[in-house]
Design goal:
Blueprint (H helix, E strand, L loop, with lengths): L2 H50 L7 E8 L2 E8 L2 E10 L2 E8 L6 H6 L4 H16 L3 H7 L5 E3 L10 H4 L1
Antiparallel strand pairs: 1-2, 2-3, 3-4, 4-5
Length: 164
Amino acid sequence: MNDRGCRRLPFALSGFAVLVWMALCGALYCASAWAGEDEDAHAIAHVIKATWERPDNPVDVRPVAVSGGFAVAGWIAGERGGRALLKKQGDAWHVVLCSGDGIRTARGLVAAGVPQETAAVLEITLAGMEAGLPADVVKKFSLFEGSVSVESGAPPAHDHHDQH
């Protein structure tokens, strides 16, 4: 056996160990980012349910796309549905706007006050999430007509939410 080949083996193994370590660190970083997104999605669902859910009318909140301190959440209550635009203020999420298809595009999100780059990410993320849902569920998100601004996180004073 050649002496030089044996001497190179520890260097090859240490290089491999570095690559494994880097991959592990990357995976842990991604997992912590996903965990943060899961925490945000849970908090957002809680805000929406606490605001509009009633014992006789449960609210299903999904999907929740989060980016740059903004989020778009789909919701369904009975045969009604829609989307909510939320903004993070400090550690708390607040509903800014209730809509249907008006906030599923970057253009609609920008019109609602979301920065362009964040709006583009939300549009792509939301489209991907909704693509994984049954068509009848996604169709319900379009049932909310128009857009209703929500002042300071308070529920809107109109009939659309009474219908969901």
